[in-house]
Amino acid sequence: xxxxxxxxxxxxxxxxxxxxxxxxxxxxxxxxxxxxxxxxxxxxxxxxxxxxxxxxxxxxxxxxxxxxxxxxxxxxxxxxxxxxxxxxxxxxxxxxxxxxxxxxxxxxxxxxxxxxxxxxxxxxxxxxxxxxxxxxxxxxxxxxxxxxxxxxxxxxxxxxxxxxxxxxxxxxxxxxxxxxxxxxxxxxxxxxxxxxxxxxxxxxxxxxxxxxxxxxxxxxxxxxxxxxxxxxxxxxxxxxxxxxxxxxxxxxxxxxxxxxxxxxxxxxxxxxxxxxxxx
Length: 279
Hints:
Order of helices and strands: EHEEHEEHHEEEHHEEH
Number of strands: 10
CATH class of the largest domain: Alpha Beta
CATH architecture of the largest domain: 2-Layer Sandwich
CATH superfamily of the largest domain: Pseudouridine synthase I, catalytic domain, N-terminal subdomain
Largest sheet: 10 strands, mixed
Mean pLDDT: 93
Distance between the termini: 72 Å
Radius of gyration: 21 Å
């Protein structure tokens, strides 16, 4: 009998039609579909004996380009076989064979999230006192080790100290993009940081008020920002975890993104013509 092998698989998914990544009874989730298709293709017999685990969990409407999942199987794994059973908005594009005792969550050394703002900078400038320099100052303050209790969903007896390694800002096609790098995050941490950074950049709060959020003795309650622009971009591991890209899986990913891009270019022109209003 073939010996058991653990795999890490790197996947993309578009979250529009799923109730988050974590499996939930009788709900359409990324993990739920992935486990079902692994069973259908005889890679695992059932969830409980498969060693199935995710490196990160994502909320509803949060997409991924480099999410990592893991399972143990006695069958050689072929990404094309699993991709043939998955819907087009989910797919495997890179694979690593790793020791049985490795865990995608525990052994990760960095998680990279990307956030794309929903409005172009020209819109923000037109409709608010937008100041990107204030956002940069807020990002500088967030970096490093802090108690992020006021940037997370409150949970009893939860250690809320984290090391935020880096935040990078860039502008692509008139949209502000933020990249977050950390070994781990608290629940809703990124979306709550974004909420306050936007309020800071649009002058709804002052820099002094932003700094108050770092005081763990004070409590602030507010809703996190929309999840629609958030992407789990990548999960990094030590060099002994050697991911090998699958050519067909990567082509599948790019083809899916291109199809969605072309459709949304059509929608953009559709609404521009409606806005123009001329016959």
